[in-house]
Design a protein that fits this description.
GO terms for molecular function: DNA binding. Keywords: DNA-binding. It comes from Quadrisphaera granulorum. The protein has 9 helices and no strands. The protein is an all-alpha fold. The longest helix is centred in the last third of the chain and has 35 residues.
């Protein structure tokens, strides 16, 4: 078994190293000369990889402006899985988000990059960020369906169970929409108030979800 998994493990590590090298090179070049003046050729030369390799990992240089949101959501999903199964999905998501943000604050990665490391006035960046949140919401909906399904009893009546599943899916979709919209609101607020320290951002998450649960009273 080891003879099969070892090469696979090396390949995965190589992929991670290549992706990180491209991100690091792009980050340096963007800081030195700006995004518009930086070409994919310059990024690949700095990372010592071919342009063909670049396009195996990214569609354009603008994708390198965003943090790895897939990895970010994987971390959030893992934190969500640690929450009690009978906890309300929105409450569980809030706790998972705070846990992830607290871990990432020290390293300046993930959500911290979303808050302080992106020029959202650039249309290509805005479009990719919006698409990432759409994907995030879809994944979160599936997680909420699974979480809510575990708390629902099956009656054995096909029609009743189908109706219950439809209502459950609707609840999951609405809850995921609220969760992601609240997350985006916190990120937007934090970008507009960059001097707010990380601990205050965590409190802002708590306050924002409290507002969401209360129906956003003015």
């Amino acid at each position: 078994m080891g003879e099969v998994t070892a090469p696979s493990g090396r390949r995965e590590r190589k992929k991670v190293e290549t992706r990180d090298a491209l991100r690091d090179a792009a980050r340096r070049l963007f800081a030195e000369q700006g995004v518009a003046a930086t070409s994919i050729e310059q990024i690949t030369e700095a990372a010592d990889v071919s342009q063909r390799t670049f396009f195996r990992y990214f569609e354009s240089k603008y994708d390198l402006l965003l943090p790895d949101l897939t990895a970010l959501f994987d971390e959030l999903e893992a934190a969500l899985a640690e929450r009690p199964r009978d906890e309300h999905p929105l409450t569980a998501y809030e706790a998972a988000l705070i846990a992830v943000m607290a871990r990432q604050a020290a390293s300046g990665q993930g959500m911290t990059t979303l808050i302080s490391g992106i020029d959202v006035s650039d249309p290509p960046v805005t479009a990719r960020l919006a698409r990432s949140f759409v994907i995030w919401e879809e994944r979160l909906t599936d997680l909420f369906v699974a979480r809510l399904s575990g708390a629902e009893a099956v009656t054995g009546n096909d029609q009743d169970d189908d109706e219950r599943a439809e209502q459950l899916a609707l609840r999951a979709s609405v809850t995921a929409g609220i969760a992601v919209a609240t997350t985006r609101a916190v990120v937007r607020w934090a970008r507009r108030h960059p001097r707010v320290p990380p601990l205050a951002r965590l409190q802002a998450v708590r306050s924002s979800f409290a507002l969401a649960r209360a129906g956003c009273p003015l």
